[in-house]
Amino acid sequence: MVKAFKITITIATILTTGIAVTGCSNPLTFTQNEISPVTVTDFKLDTYVSISSYDNTDESVLKDALALCDKYEDIFSMYKEGSELWRINENETTEVSPELGYVLDTALYWSSRSDKNFQISVGKVSELWDFNSEQHNIPDEASINEALKTVDDSRIKLKEKDNPSEGWIISKPADTKIDLGAVSKGYVADKIKEYLIDHGVAHAVINLGGNVLCVGDKHGSDFNIGIRKPFAQATDTIAVLALSDRSAVSSGISERYFEGENGRIYHHIINPKNGYPYDNDLMQTTIITKDSLTGDCLSTLCFTLGLEEGLKLALNEADTEAIFITIDEQLHYTPGAEKLSK
Predict the structure, then answer these.
(1) What's the Cα-to-Cα distance from 118 to each of 185, 255, 271, 297, 299, rounded to whole Å?
(2) Within a domain: residue 161?
(3) How far is CA 27 from CA 107, 200, 212, 221, 289, in A?
(4) 24 pLDDT above the threshold of 80
(5) For residues 270 and 288, what is the distance between their CA atoms, to the nearest angstrom?
(6) What's the pLDDT at 34?
(7) Predicted structure pTM score
(8) How far apart are CA 325 and CA 299, in angstroms?
(9) pLDDT for position 231
(10) What is the pLDDT of residues 37-86, one digit of tens each?
């Protein structure tokens, strides 16, 4: 799997790819009057994950919540042999668990609205781009063109069983490979939040390397969520959002990338129409929603659509706000996102 940036985690500051949880008076620190959280961290889902509770929470509850990442990697990973998604990609027709079926159904819904800019059947193309390799080789055009023949979400058929608790049935062409990397972390964040609430945690921040989900508020005040400046130092934020009980998800060109000999940035958001990273004058999108799965889908989809169409989509979605950062480092807000900015 592709590698995320390494992040620095301290009691004072929680920094992620694209997003940072910050304090009130200083954008990157908590003051002495701030509530000290109970925090657990680990490397999960190929990124650094942290959960911070602002209640008097036993650390074991947070560790159990963090362990859910392992459960969902066994469901959603395209690369882990034996995972549920891996098994789907190895077969034409497969039974699907209720959770994977729900995520697939959600992703296919957004795909249907994307004019083929957002396709989960892009797996054979995305695996050609190895961002872990020291060589950083650009795939040859013949390999890309061959892989593009397998990309078409309309050929994926998903049907829920008569009894929803029994799951779904999926059918697809044998050569189609599904990649849920653009959406699955959002679902995991939502399930961690659900677990925390069920175990009495009412004030917390879940941070899945670019996906931040706030559980409630910070005992009467908002959480300050910093948006990292693309390509800058880990502590540099370009904007700060005041959020309670909301999700903020960022997608952009500085998350996983390499620079080619021609100086071009090759990043992990692949255009399923041509097999190459998107080149649309955007550096990053941040989507603010109630749930993280919707935010995850929209952060990628809005990026693929570009500034004008992406903003239009965000403006037309209920309970959705967005911030776009263009290549000239200018910020473009929906009206609601501007109000949330500090």
Answers:
(1) 16, 18, 8, 9, 11
(2) yes
(3) 34, 29, 16, 15, 22
(4) no
(5) 23
(6) 64
(7) 0.89
(8) 12
(9) 82
(10) 999 999 999 889 999 999 999 999 999 999 999 999 999 999 999 999 99
In a domain, 136, yes or no: yes
What the block records as the tokens of 223 is 């959480």
CB 323 within 8 A of CB 239: yes
Range of the domain at 155: 91-171
Residue 190 placed within a domain: no
162 within some domain: yes
Question: In 1-127, which ranges are E strands?
Answer: 14-15, 19-22, 38-44, 47-53, 93-96
**pLDDT tens digit string along 228-263?**
888 887 778 899 999 999 999 999 988 787 787 777
Whether residue 301 contacts residue 292, with contact meaning beta carbons closer than 8 Å, is answered with: no
Q: What is the number of domains present in the chain?
A: 1
Cα separations (Å) of 99 from 14, 136, 172?
Answer: 29, 35, 19
Q: Identify the residue whose tokens are 């919707």.
A: 294
CATH number assigned to the domain comprising residue 138 = 1.10.3980.10
What kind and span of H or E run contains 188? helix 184-198
> Residue 129: CB partners within 8 Å, gap ≥ 6?
139, 266, 268, 270, 277
pLDDT digits (tens, 9 = 90+) for 99-119: 999 999 999 999 999 999 999
Question: DSSP secondary structure string, 307-322?
Answer: HHHHHHHHHHSTT-EE
Please enumerate in sequence order all residues whose Cβ is within 8 A of that of 271, keeping only pairs 6 or more positions apart, or say none: 117, 277, 278, 304
Range with the poorest average pLDDT among 6-10, 282-286, 292-296, 299-303: 6-10
Helix (H, G, I), strand (E, B) or coil at 303: helix
121: helix, coil or strand? coil
The angle subtended at Cα 200 by Cα 196 and Cα 204, nearest 5°, is: 50
Which residues touch 108 (CB under 8 Å, ≥6 apart)? 120, 153, 156, 158
Could you tell me the pLDDT band of residue 20, with boundaries at 50, 70 and 90? low
Angstrom distance (rounded) from CA 213 to CA 69:
15
Judge whether 205 and 215 are in contact, CB under 8 Å. Answer: yes
Tens digit of each residue's pLDDT (9 = 90 or more) over 77-96: 999 999 999 999 999 999 99
